[in-house]
Specification:
The complex is a heterodimer. By secondary structure, chain A is mainly alpha-helical. Chain A folds into two domains: about 1-165; about 200-475, Orthogonal Bundle (MetI-like fold). In chain A, about 70% of the residues lie in helices and about 5% in strands. In chain A, helix 1 (about 1-25) packs across helix 2 (about 30-40). By secondary structure, chain B is an alpha+beta fold. Chain B folds into four domains: about 55-205, Immunoglobulin-like (Sandwich), CATH 2.60.40.680; about 235-265 and about 275-435, Immunoglobulin-like; about 530-610 and about 660-825, MetI-like (MetI-like fold, Orthogonal Bundle); about 620-655, no CATH class. Helix content of chain B is about 40%, strand content about 20%. Chain B contains 20 helices and 24 strands. In chain B, helix 6 (about 445-470) packs antiparallel against helix 7, helix 8 (about 520-530) packs across helix 20 (about 790-825) and helix 15 packs antiparallel against helix 18 (about 740-745). Chain B is elongated, with a radius of gyration of 37 Å. The chains are: A mainly alpha, B alpha+beta.
Chain lengths: ~475, ~850
């Protein structure tokens, strides 16, 4: 603690010195100040190169030829700048010295570390670059930040700018990661995309070779039912979730108290628990029904049935009805939260005016509060719609291959399950074999579906933002 | 308190004139919407009922049971029935040629003019009949050329037989391997078969005796009863034929016949006793058609010339259609003991057969391996024909299934291993037919579910009804002037609607708790929190290692890795979108983060491959895979000497060091991908926290000349800490609850606690993935028909769910109380 405050003190010291030099000196002094600042251009340039090198090392599969030179160059550049400042002003930045020390140690370490690290019974053989590249990135960013601050004259504003490298680095890395994901999905997905695939249902009954003793099937891949299933699940779970969600939101916003706390807490829990828990709980009901023929009503509604082309009714693992009810349970809290927010944002004047004009509870809710909260509710519905495509952990328990059609009492099947099953299912399974080449196409479709919903909800939020800024007509 | 618009005056004042029509409209609208909802619900419920079972066909022998005198002619009809027009029917009919002889096959009236597959001219027909009389089976295929036979019941063919005079007996007339084709689509569809039998009373007659009955007996008898009675003991069957203990469950088609097996056609057991003795195993089922949910008893019989002391064999079946319930030693030999002798091992074999997914080449093949019986010497030898044991199977889905018995080993009394021949039997599983009896087969457990559903449905219905009633209530002052203090309809309606998720959450907790209770007895608490979990979900029943500690360790590791990566990045993103917009960057990033939050987890899961290529292989698995992947010696690694001694490797060249299963990935990768899922989830929350931090300190700090960075660090972030903490907790719960990413990147089977505990390069899945895999084995998912995993596995899976549930509830409660305290301290 004391060390830190000391170094901070030193920093303030140097700041004030530099600032003082810049502001109040004339002639030669101002030239000195400029040269003090400009000399940090060298470490800045080297650190930018260091960041680039660190990035390259991070994704390179080669051992590091550049780590040691990079560390040494950084240390030298920073040392040169610090020495120059010391010669001119007799002020030494301790943080720069510490940084130089770290760089020197890193350079030494990257030179001395073996190319491959293993031991501790760790289940990996770690390339040296796994250590040197993050180190290079972090230290380069530190040098960058330090020299940026010095270059800008050690003012408070420069302190703000010095934070930029620290903010940009993680953002850049994570944007790279997301970019990689998108690139991967889009390129691989477009590869298998064809109109035929989208308009055809997966059909396992196509027979390639029919010898009485040994029938060999060659299933035809197709994504039609999965696409329709995703859309149906979305529509049904939204319609199930809308009323309870809005009702809970209204109650929490309008009638605060013990019951509202209970409702809010259980909605919070529903949001927080793993989807797997919800799926498992509901699956236990199906477990009790093992062996039930698909004939009685309960089994039809809960498990779903599929009617084969020959009229045989087979029990499925879970119907769209059941699963959309479960997904509704997950997305209802979103709707409730947005409704509550919308109602809380109703201007006090509006409430008072409505009460003063004699409107009762019901009238006020229907004519004043809900219309005001309408955009919020719509946003909640759209966010919920996007969320339905993320409910794989529930669907896993119930989904089938969807070869028998899509409907409320059909077995549930969705795009994300198609991806999961085709990628993970055993090698001998028909569905996995037929669909595996197209799982990235399914992923692409799923992204398009989910992002469509998200974009719509964001556009709604933007409109609401306009309203919040005061324009009532923007609604 | 904000005005919640519940003025008391509302009840007192006379209704405003303007409100009258509004109320009426509301009433009408409410009624209409309820009606529409009910109609939709009813149509949804009835839609599947409206579709008749169209294409399933039946073929029945008529009359089913007939008694004729020896030597007398008789005829049977095969009656065909289908829901759709048919154009082709094919069936095999087997009979005992030593008892009855086929004389003529004639197409029924509706099928006249049709073509028999064996030809219409007399010569070929006679050949076919003569052949049938030799081997006891005739294949009848009828093609309705150029026409179709309309739906409904028709007589398909009439067969004229002659009973053989002699000692008499009972001959089964069994229909097998039947198919029908839809006239419109030419698609074949399954057929439910009803076989018949004929009893021949002893007596003389004029019919010629069977063609050379002594010499041309079928070389491969369809079932032991038809074996030549050379050895003098031709009656072991009745004892074996009785339906198993559970076979009394309602069979849909009356199983008058005891269908027998057609032995595998390969090596015909030589009738001559010369050379090495051969043991023939037969498999006989008590029904050849059962309904889903019913049990069939398969009896394995043997026929050998030498006395045997032990026989073992495998029983193979499609475990997506059938599940083994029990294996019992048959009673032909007193004192015979089952192999394996320990009941737990038998149960393990049953479990393995029911969920055999190890062999990717036979995804639907369940094999009951290495069962058999041992006969102690003092009891007697397993000599000639007799039943060995019975396997009780339960039908779980519709379809056709062959049950095969494949011999493994037979030792005769002198210890010599014998040659063996197996056989198989076909069983067809149909949905139960006949509407009246449909519900009866559901059994006790189905009733419970009905009850649960009934209760929940009625609760929902009552709630909705209450909503409607309250909405339709008239003004709250009665005519008599009595003031009813009814709450307003928005209160009641929103309360009832809001209580739905509460009730469902409570029910969910209850279900999880109830279902995880069996685990307390079956593996037991101590075993549950053991360190070790046997490697594969489907075989752990054998080892009995159910420890969840590895999965708990995986959960912790994944949570730590994910949040370590996600928190700094989210913090940076949140700061950029709020306090440090950096010009256009902040404006651009905010919608981008919003957009990213919509990406489903499965997308990250399938992107795993790219990360493995770019990050994991070059950085963490510098083994021979790496060497070959990158062109070998270019990087200075010699694949032949790599990995060096002492490094944990799969032991095989070309595998990742940790990787024994050929799976690519590790806990670290799972954490990394989950952090990408969590970042867009918690960034808006952290941004909100920063934005909503009390402004007074921020303004004071800025006014005093502090830089924005200083203000952020010392004035904003400390104030925003509670909200940031709640974002972190929610993000952590999301990370811990993920299934898809963990399954892809770290697998779904927890093995042992990683050693050392921080070894994030092992595959250690979290509780969520592990538990889900325990309940529904993932490798079977794509078949669309998942075998239920064993009861112990399921219960352990529910314990995983319970742990996660408890974690989430505890976290949320702690968080709420902490925040309440912070709010108080901030206010104070």
């Amino acid at each position: 603690m004391t060390a830190r405050s000391e170094s901070e003190l030193a920093l303030e010291n140097s700041q004030s010195t530099a600032a003082g030099l810049e502001r109040f000196s004339l002639g030669r002094s101002s030239q000195i100040a400029r040269s003090i600042r400009l000399v940090y251009g060298l470490p800045l340039a080297v650190s930018l190169m260091g960041i680039a090198g660190g990035m390259a090392l991070l994704i390179s599969d080669q051992p590091d030829p550049i780590a040691t030179p990079a560390f040494s160059l950084l240390a030298l550049a920073l040392l040169a700048a610090t020495l120059h400042v010391r010669m001119e002003t007799a002020v030494t930045s301790r943080s720069a010295l510490a940084l130089i020390g770290l760089l020197a140690v890193s350079a030494l370490a990257s030179l001395l570390l073996p190319k491959w690290l293993y031991g501790l019974q760790l289940n990996a053989i770690i390339s040296r670059t796994a250590i040197t590249s993050p180190l290079l990135l972090v230290l380069s960013t530190a040098v960058c930040s330090h020299s940026l601050r010095a270059l800008l004259g050690n003012t408070p504003g420069a302190g703000d700018k010095a934070l930029y490298p620290w903010l940009i680095l993680p953002i850049f890395l994570v944007v790279l990661a997301y970019g990689l994901i998108f690139f991967n999905v889009v390129v691989d997905g477009l590869h298998g995309l064809s109109l035929d695939l989208l308009t055809r249902a997966y059909d396992p009954t196509v027979v390639a070779k029919n010898v009485t003793a040994n029938t060999q099937y060659s299933p035809v891949p197709g994504l039609r039912n999965q696409i329709l299933g995703s859309l149906l699940l979305l529509a049904m779970s939204l319609s199930f979730a809308a009323l309870p969600g809005i009702g809970a939101g209204v109650f929490m916003a309008e009638y605060p108290g013990r019951i509202a706390t209970v409702i809010s807490l259980s909605l919070q829990m529903l949001r927080a628990i793993s989807l797997f828990v919800i799926g498992a709980a509901a699956y236990s009901m199906i477990l009790g029904m093992t062996g039930t023929p698909g004939d009685d009503l309960t089994s039809k509604l809960v498990r779903g049935v599929s009617l084969t082309s020959t009229g045989l009714s087979l029990p499925e693992r879970g119907s769209f009805l059941l699963v959309s009810g479960l997904v509704a349970l997950v997305v209802a809290p979103v709707i409730a939260k947005m409704t509550e927010e919308g109602l809380r944002s109703v201007p006090r004047e509006l409430r008072e005016a409505s009460v003063a004009l004699g409107a009762g509870d019901g009238f006020g809710l229907r004519r004043v509060l809900l219309p005001w909260a309408g955009p919020n509710i719509l946003t909640g519905l759209l966010i919920a719609a996007a969320e339905t495509s993320a409910s794989l952990a529930i669907i896993i328990f119930f989904a089938g291959t969807g070869e028998t059609g899509v409907g409320p009492v059909n077995g549930v099947t969705t795009l994300d399950f198609a991806i999961f099953a085709s990628h993970w299912g055993g090698g001998g399974n028909f569905f996995a074999t037929a669909m595996n080449p197209y799982h990235m196409t399914a992923a692409l479709l799923l992204i398009v579906l989910a992002l469509g919903m998200t974009v719509a909800s964001m556009l709604m939020q933007r409109r609401m933002g306009r309203r919040a800024r005061g324009s009532l007509t923007a609604i | 308190m904000k005005p919640t618009s519940r003025p008391d005056s509302d009840t007192d004042s006379p209704p405003h004139p303007a409100r009258r029509p509004y109320r009426r409209r509301l009433r009408l609208g409410g009624a209409i919407s309820v009606l529409i909802a009910l109609a939709v619900a009813a149509s949804l419920a009835l839609a599947p009922l409206a579709v008749s079972a169209g294409g399933i066909g039946t073929l029945a022998v008529n009359p089913t049971d007939e008694t004729v005198a020896g030597g007398a002619p008789f005829s049977i009809d095969i009656v065909q029935k289908a829901g759709v027009a048919t154009s082709q029917v094919q069936t095999d009919l087997t009979f005992d040629p030593s008892l009855v002889q086929l004389q003529e096959i004639k197409a029924g009236p509706a099928w006249t003019g049709s073509v028999f597959a064996f030809g219409n001219d007399a010569a070929t027909a006679a050949d076919a009949i003569a052949g049938a009389n030799q081997n006891g089976t005739v294949t009848i295929t009828v093609l309705a050329t150029g026409k179709s036979v309309s739906a409904g019941e028709t007589t398909f063919v009439t067969l004229r037989f002659a009973a053989v005079s002699g000692p008499g007996g009972r001959s089964e007339l069994r229909l097998r391997n039947a198919t029908m084709a839809d006239a419109a689509t030419q698609a074949t569809f399954p057929v439910i078969l009803t076989s018949g039998s004929v009893t021949i009373t002893p007596g003389g007659g004029s019919v010629s005796s069977p063609i050379a009955s002594g010499s041309i007996t079928p070389s491969l008898p369809p079932c032991p009863s038809a074996t030549p009675a050379e050895s003098g003991t031709a009656s072991p069957l009745p004892s074996a034929m009785k339906p198993g203990p559970k076979g009394s469950a309602k069979p849909t088609v009356q199983p008058s016949a005891a269908p027998c097996a057609t032995p595998a056609p390969t090596p015909a057991p030589s009738p001559t006793p010369a050379g090495p003795a051969t043991v023939t195993l037969y498999l006989v089922t008590d029904h050849d058609t059962v309904a889903v949910g019913d049990t069939i008893t398969a009896t394995i019989l043997e026929n050998s010339d030498n006395p045997l002391s032990s026989v073992t064999f495998d029983v193979g079946f499609d475990h997506s259609l059938l599940q083994v319930v029990s294996v019992d030693a048959a009673t032909t030999w007193q004192g015979a003991t089952l192999i394996p002798s320990r009941p737990s091992v038998v149960q393990a074999a049953i479990d393995r057969a029911n969920s055999a997914i190890l062999d990717v080449n036979y995804p639907n093949e369940g094999v009951l391996q290495g069962i058999g019986i041992n006969v102690p010497a003092e009891v007697g030898d397993v000599s000639v024909s007799g039943s060995l044991l019975t396997v009780t199977l339960k039908a779980i889905r519709t379809g056709n299934v062959d049950i095969q018995v494949t011999p493994v080993d037979a030792t005769d009394a002198t210890g010599v291993t014998e040659q063996m021949v197996g056989s198989s039997a076909a069983v067809m599983i149909a949905t139960s037919t006949g509407g009246a009896g449909g519900g009866g087969a559901t059994g006790g457990k189905g009733l419970d579910v009905d009850w649960v559903l009934l209760v929940s449905a009625s609760v929902l219905f009552v709630e909705l009804l209450a909503c409607v009633v309250v909405m339709l209530l008239p003004a709250r002052t009665l005519r008599s002037g009595v003031r009813l203090r009814l709450p307003s309809w928005p209160f009641v309606v929103s309360l009832l609607l809001g209580l739905i998720p509460v009730g469902l959450f409570a029910g969910l907790v209850g279900l999880i708790v109830v279902n995880s209770l069996p685990a307390l007895t079956s593996p037991g608490i101590a075993a549950l929190f053991d360190d070790h979990f046997s490697g594969h979900v489907y075989s752990n029943a054998t080892s009995g290692a159910f420890g969840l500690a590895p999965a708990v360790a995986g959960t912790v590791l994944i949570g730590i890795v994910a949040m370590t990566i996600a928190l700094p990045v989210s913090l940076a993103l949140a700061i950029v979108t709020t306090e440090f917009p950096m010009g256009p960057l902040g404006r651009v990033l905010r919608p981008v983060v919003g957009l990213l939050s919509g990406i489903p987890p499965i997308i990250y899961a399938v992107s795993m491959v790219a990360f493995v290529r770019i990050l994991i292989i070059p950085k963490f698995t510098a083994d021979s895979t790496f060497a070959t992947f990158n062109g070998g010696a270019a990087i200075g690694v010699d694949p032949s000497t790599w990995p060096p001694a002492g490094i944990p490797s799969g032991g095989l060249p070309g595998l990742f060091p940790w990787d024994l299963t050929g799976m690519v990935g590790c806990t670290f990768l799972a954490g990394l991908l989950i952090s990408l899922l969590v970042i867009p989830f918690i960034t808006p929350m952290i941004a909100d926290a920063i934005r909503n931090a009390p402004t007074s300190t921020r303004e004071a700090s800025l006014a005093l000349g502090a830089s924005r960075a200083y203000t952020l660090r010392h004035a904003i972030l400390p104030r925003a800490l509670p909200a940031i903490l709640s974002a972190v907790v929610l993000g952590l719960l999301k990370a811990v609850g993920d299934v898809a990413i963990v399954t892809f990147a770290a697998g779904a089977e927890a093995d042992t606690i990683p050693n050392p505990i921080f070894d994030i390069f092992e595959h250690t899945p979290s509780l969520a993935a592990h538990g889900a895999n325990m309940i529904v084995p993932f490798t079977q998912l794509s078949t669309g028909m998942v075998t239920q995993s064993s009861a112990a596995n399921t219960a352990v899976g529910y314990v995983c769910a319970l742990l996660l549930l408890a974690l989430a509830v505890a976290m949320i409660l702690i968080l709420n109380s902490l925040q309440a305290r912070w709010r108080r301290s901030l206010a104070g």
